Amino acid sequence: MPILKALELLADRLTEGRLQVAARAIRDEVKTGVQLSDAFSHQGIFPPIYVTSVMAGEKSGSLTEVLDRYVSYQRLTLAARKKLLLSLMYPSILVFLVICLIVFLITFVVPSFAVLYTDMSASLPAATQLLIAVGTTAKNYVLAVFLLLVGAVVGFRFWSRTPAAQVTLDRIKLKLPVIGEIWVKFQVAQFSRVLSTLLVGGIPLVQALETAGDSTGSVLLREMLLRARKGVREGQALSLSLSQTGIFPPLAIDMIEVGESTGALSAMLNSVAEFFEDDVQTRMAAVLGLVEPAIMIFMGVFVAFVLIALYLPIFSLADTLR
Questions:
Q1: Distances (CA, A) of 97 to 110, 153, 265
Q2: Residue 44: what are its φ and ψ, rounded to 5°?
Q3: Torsion angle, CA of 130/136/138/144, rounded to 10 degrees?
């Protein structure tokens, strides 16, 4: 099917307003002789990897095949992210419920017992005094604390959008035990998947590195890949340039070096992506398997401490009456 006819059918069948407008604009530009990839780029809503893939298909004369590879890449990427989000859902709900339980005990149950013990003029143990002091303070300032937390969250969101803040956050992620390693492997897998897709589509290595770097979600990794791209442009091997970033795992560097030496870089990058995606899933499952019992243990210990601290004076009074 000719491109113009395909674009017309696409514009008629799309229901989302912004995409429909973009499809019609692309169709009009292509009619005037503009390249399809340039028309996609002018809309400003399509990701760089998609525009670059379209350009590769135009230059190689296999646009359909290149777009099929892009669709396969999107399916694999979305499937990996979906698995990650689903694995995080239950621990997130559990943490939220634990926080709600703690707030309820501290701001409602503990102050009620504080009034009871004040009326009884009972002698309280140190643990009970500490718990009542915390509960009474939390009840008096619960609104102020809530507004402070909301302000902190809003301020953090605005701050985290700045490039300097994103680099700082990425460096903090790198230093986190266990989580930092998982985060690095996930980023490496995504980068390798994008770079492999672009190389298979016929994009030159330097241009593919630029697009793959722009498609990553880490500002720190993007800066490191910019340095690696400069090294490749100056004649360095890709494996050497990536190893100088200090982020890529040694195994990934070794696999990429083998791919360069055998002339199968795109296939080896795809293997790197598959290996690290599986490793991330395995490690995430192991970490979450430890997090859930840890949360339950913490909740049990906290509830036990609250119950003992609150009921200990009652037991003392009962012994005194006897």
A1: 18, 19, 48
A2: 75, 10
A3: -140
pTM for this prediction: 0.68
Q: Which amino acid is at 200?
A: V
Q: Is the pLDDT of residue 322 over 60?
A: no
CB atoms within 10 A of CB 270: 21
The whole-number pLDDT of residue 318 equals 56
* In the chain, where the domains are located: 3-72, 76-322
Architecture of the domain spanning 76-322: Up-down Bundle (1.20)
Mean pLDDT computed over every residue of the chain = 77
- Measure the CA–CA gap between 1 and 39, rounded to whole angstroms: 19
Q: Are 125 and 312 in contact (CB under 8 A)?
A: yes
Angle between helices 250-262 and 265-321 (to 10 degrees): 170
Listing DSSP states for 12-30 in one string gives HH--SHHHHHHHHHHHHHH
Give me the pLDDT at residue 121, please: 65
